[in-house]
Fold this sequence. Notes:
- Two copies of one chain form a homodimer.
- The first copy, chain A, has a domain at 436-571.
- The first copy, chain A, contains 19 helices and 14 strands.
- Chain A has helices spanning 7-16, 20-24, 34-52, 56-61, 77-86, 105-118, 124-139, 142-154, 285-321, 342-373, 377-408, 420-427, 437-448, 455-467, 471-488, 492-497, 499-521, 527-548, 551-554; strands at residues 65-67, 70-72, 157-162, 178-181, 187-197, 206-214, 225-231, 233-235, 241-244, 247-252, 263-268, 275-279, 323-326, 335-337.
- The radius of gyration of chain A is 24 Å and the shape is globular.
- Chain A starts with 6 loop residues before the first helix and ends in a 17-residue tail after the last helix.
- Chains A and B meet through helix 9, strand 13, helix 10, helix 11 and helix 12 of A and helix 9, strand 13, helix 10, helix 11 and helix 12 of B.
- Chains A, B: Its EC number is 1.3.99.41.
- Chains A, B: It catalyses: 3-(methylsulfanyl)propanoyl-CoA + oxidized [electron-transfer flavoprotein] + H(+) = 3-(methylsulfanyl)acryloyl-CoA + reduced [electron-transfer flavoprotein].
- Chains A, B: It is an enzyme of class 1 (oxidoreductase).
- Chains A, B: Keywords: FAD, Flavoprotein, Oxidoreductase.
Amino acid sequence: MPFTPPVAEQRFVLEHVAGIADLAASERFAEATPDTIDAILEGVGQFAAGEWEPLARKGDTDGPKLTADGVRMPQGFAQAYRDYVDGGWGTVGSPVEYGGMGLPFALSTAVLETLGVANMGFALAPTLTVGAIEALAHHGTQQQQALYLPHLATGAWTGTMNLTEPQAGSDVGALRTMATPRGDGTWSVKGTKIFISFGDHDMADNIVHLVLARTPDAPAGTRGISLFLVPKYRLDAEGRPGAPNDVRVVSIEHKMGLHASPTCVLSFGDNGDCVGELIGPEHGGMRAMFTMMNNARLNVGLQGVQVAEAATQRAVAYARERVQSARASAPGAGPVAIVEHPDVRRMLVRMKAETQAIRALVYYAAGQVDRGNLGDDAARKRADLLTPLAKSHGTDIGCAVASLGVQVHGGMGYIEETGAAQHFRDARITPIYEGTNGIQAADLVGRKLGLDGGGVLAALIADMRAEAEHAALRDLIDAIEAAAAHLAGADPDDRLAGSSPFLTMCAVAVCGWLMERQGRAASGTDDFARIKRASARFYLDQLVPEALGLKPAAMASADVLYAVNAEAFAA
Amino acid sequence: MPFTPPVAEQRFVLEHVAGIADLAASERFAEATPDTIDAILEGVGQFAAGEWEPLARKGDTDGPKLTADGVRMPQGFAQAYRDYVDGGWGTVGSPVEYGGMGLPFALSTAVLETLGVANMGFALAPTLTVGAIEALAHHGTQQQQALYLPHLATGAWTGTMNLTEPQAGSDVGALRTMATPRGDGTWSVKGTKIFISFGDHDMADNIVHLVLARTPDAPAGTRGISLFLVPKYRLDAEGRPGAPNDVRVVSIEHKMGLHASPTCVLSFGDNGDCVGELIGPEHGGMRAMFTMMNNARLNVGLQGVQVAEAATQRAVAYARERVQSARASAPGAGPVAIVEHPDVRRMLVRMKAETQAIRALVYYAAGQVDRGNLGDDAARKRADLLTPLAKSHGTDIGCAVASLGVQVHGGMGYIEETGAAQHFRDARITPIYEGTNGIQAADLVGRKLGLDGGGVLAALIADMRAEAEHAALRDLIDAIEAAAAHLAGADPDDRLAGSSPFLTMCAVAVCGWLMERQGRAASGTDDFARIKRASARFYLDQLVPEALGLKPAAMASADVLYAVNAEAFAA
């Protein structure tokens, strides 16, 4: 694929949306100078294009294999991963204390985007490692941090998140994995976890499993859950990977896509000898999990950006090359590349506009995380509010753009060798994992709407309203304000019934706001500026009104959903 | 999969939407009595559930294979196909003169729906055979009809449509396959065709390839195209399959889905000995092709119904079985099946409502085809207008519903063994083949809007307006009238730029009209009536407003699409 790292776009969004110059004005992020940003964006772009993208199709067709020695990645992945570690690309956002560069999360978001545009399944490994770093940095002991963080900070060791069990998916509180004290301060972990991304592989010296489990006599449900660190290899006295722990890969799932990422069933403690350490306080697992998951959710929203960017680049390249029919407005001029046909153009401009919009949403949220880390409490809460928007809408749009990418290719899009189908298959997991998009919507109308008594949303609305000029965007902002007021007073069923359409309306409003801002900022006459202005105009004129059409659904009663009971539902 | 043939729904839609009782009042369709309809719907339901559905997953995982003797279907398919032929299921809509039952197209649509719900890829074989029957019945000589139609009418022989070549996809006029006279009235065909569904297989005694080709000195473009019949086996003096013709399967494509259907590259005349017959007049190929394609386009819209119905049934079954979390409105009542959670319910009701809506659209169009065949010219033109709506919107919704089906399954939806992913992959070709949905939209705003100077659309709008009560539906009808008036006066680029959103608006208006009608007709207190009313209400309250949100896009200028030229587009 003709992969072009979207450096100019990333730089522009970091500047005008994430506000990286303001971040660099702080002591903590003083290293985030324009030169450093350019060097990192361009460097990782070259690396990803040169080493990760060439493995993208192999990851799909060959896939990881489960052997007697554990999971083996397809040929080339281990080397490409080592080069990622050696190049320092894992360290961009990692804590300085443990060997990281400590640069803003917004910038490491751009780095991770580029890696994922090149090879989405592969980039899931660093994504999960970030979650492990967050959990340890916030909840680990000094000793745990000293032992594990230096290796995670570079990516030399990778992390996993072990939440799901067959009976405990969205309902994390139903998990049954047990941890019992071994008497020496460590714990014996026993249970089976499913859907563990990169649960095993041969690319790193160790794998740090973060495992949710119950302790003896723990209260039922989520309040009785604790977080444990279970290394694939136990550390020896020097802190190096030593004897294998009692963790077994039972199987790799046969997934529709994202084949480069081995999705494992892991069995802990088959032989009663799986040693783990408690992270944070006993029964404090949910809090630690949310620390781990919050950034992970933004990063899954970022996967939507990754796949949308990749699908768009591929579709644009095909549409510029494929010649078919004369343009209707110039029938005598002979056949043209299909990019010239209005309906194909419409699909491509939509792909561009949607991709830019979700990139803006995710980078903006990442910038709020950075501000929160600098002590700005309002920004931290705004990041909390934006996280379900970025995760859900980012992934919904990733899927939608990948689908348009198939469509632009016509019949060739359905042939696997073309590559468009892989994006379509790869994308489809993202609205599901790290909390389904329905769970995100429930989080939005359940927890996030009520933050500061509604003040967090109100402040966002006020900021948007102060800047918004486009009539449809102003209408949409009014609509989400009205819907939010309605939902705040609605009973739980009605609130949840309207939650998903409401989430989409909110996300499109934020996207529209940020697209309009970018359109204003792109005042030049170069191609980049003209495309940016066209994308912004298309988004505001055509996509914002679509979201307005969701208002009745966001405010509808749940009654219609329960007109028949479940038993009759199949009639 | 727990497949339940949707007999009650089909009967209801045939009655209240397709108006089958009116059809049965004609001499031609007098056999379409309620008893016959019931017997056929129930019979094919039992047959499909018993023999075709059990092969659905095998068709996906094993797939047809190309051998030295041609394409071999997975084990069981040949027998299941013979049983379909022997059961007479292919004859329902076939002409009486050739051994068919000659029942309404609306009824054979229901039969084909059931077969495709059970096994979508398999059901493509009969779908293509219908196209071949139509072409021969309208354009073949008496001798050609006598030789071929009795075998096609039962499905004992199958048909193919050979249009596409590597350089000629949507631009059919660019094809290069040549037919030269052999001097005995037959033609020698030479060329390569791609994307030929069921281009070869081992289920039938013969395969009737209908091939578009150019004749010597033919004018350029579509005006120089002729249609040829090329049998896999030439007929002997008794009209039986004899010597193999010079047609070779070059390869089977590796597609994302619909694996049960072998998509072949066919080479005609490698040895200069491929014998074909002209169908219709020389240079009359496009007209014959449209005859063949019009019903095929409705049948592809019907594939959207098939996959939506299958995905919905599978999702409902899973959601009723999968227990996870307490309902938010009753936290103390313990975990419930996920069908009880409002957002899951919303997805399921949406799947139901969308599926019912596109079924209504396709069956209504089929009923208009029947009326056209009875001599009602207005109905024939209305069917022409509805065909791009049914094809595009039916397939868009098939994809959307299959995607919701994956979502309802959560993580299990991404695992291939669950089956939800197969629907998602299978569906994705339908917006592409038989004329991409973009081509359908161009057909709508190009040819169909202008039928009778706009009178055909005006008559439909008048009929909808006379019956529509729901405010949003009335607004949508007004909106399509306004958009149609705008598009009629727009320049070609603007008209095409708005064509796809306009098509969706029109299709949703027709669906909303037919759903409202069904909601009124379903006055009982049984589960079927209550679900029908709930689906109708959901459709009108929540989905019709979404389509209203497309109005700005339908009426937008193409300028924004051409703000940069194609060379700059990748910037």
